[in-house]
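Thought: the user wants the 3D structure for the chain below. I'll pass the sequence to the structure tool as-is, report back what it returns, then summarize two notable features.
Action: structure_tool
Action Input:
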Amino acid sequence: MSRSMVSERASQCAFFGVSALLFAASAAVTRIWCASMSAMGEMPMPGGWTMSMAWMLMPGQRWPGAAASFLGMWVVMMVAMMLPSLVPMLWRYREAVGRTGETRLGRLTALVGAGYFFVWTAFGMLAFPLGVALAEVEMQVPALARAVPIAVGVVVLLAGALQFTAWKARHLACCRVAPGHGRPLPADAGTAWRHGLRLGLHCSTCCAGLTAILLVVGVMDLRVMAVVTAAITVERLAPAGEHVARAVGAVIVLAGLFLIARAVGLAWCA
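Observation:
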């Protein structure tokens, strides 16, 4: 085996090894965070549902600290959820840049990943104040709180319908396309960062419906996280990704209809 082949094999092992360690660490921290939040309990609300403590202040905590804590855990959670589908994309980037003879593949790949998760960080910065504002209104207006179970079902239903749109298909295709379309990419930091930003924008937009489900159904629920992660990963990596996305959409639509029917039934019985 030639020296170049040995070096390439070592680079490949290092890449997948670091990716596996990063995933394991982020998944473990996410699990610990969810367990600690669950141990604090949830607030019972009018309408027979409970509000997550993620949208409320902990004892002795101020809002800047709460926002920083949420954002930190959001980033860790997104790393755990998105890394399974991101790693193949990063590997294809390494292959595209490697055709130029570039040797700083580790640094450039890290910049792509940083740009990608910067977009998800910005998404979390928008989600937190919105979630806090909605939680505040729901606690002050009992009639609105009673409508939340139906509203959750509607959000899930709309998220499922979004899976069938051309808009979803277009962004999913952008997530799946190989970097450079078979042509070498410029091997510089600016290009790597911008590539990560573009990939993050397409991915976060493509995942908007699934992320909305995560936020309204269970931002601290490991089962919901696992299901959303599986859906995102399969539609990114399966050979017929668009067909998979529609199949996922059909399941989500049925789940949304079930949630609405259950909420209406409970409201009628009450």
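Final Answer: Structure generated. Residues 3-104+122-189+206-269 form one domain. The CA atoms of residues 97 and 103 lie 9 Å apart.
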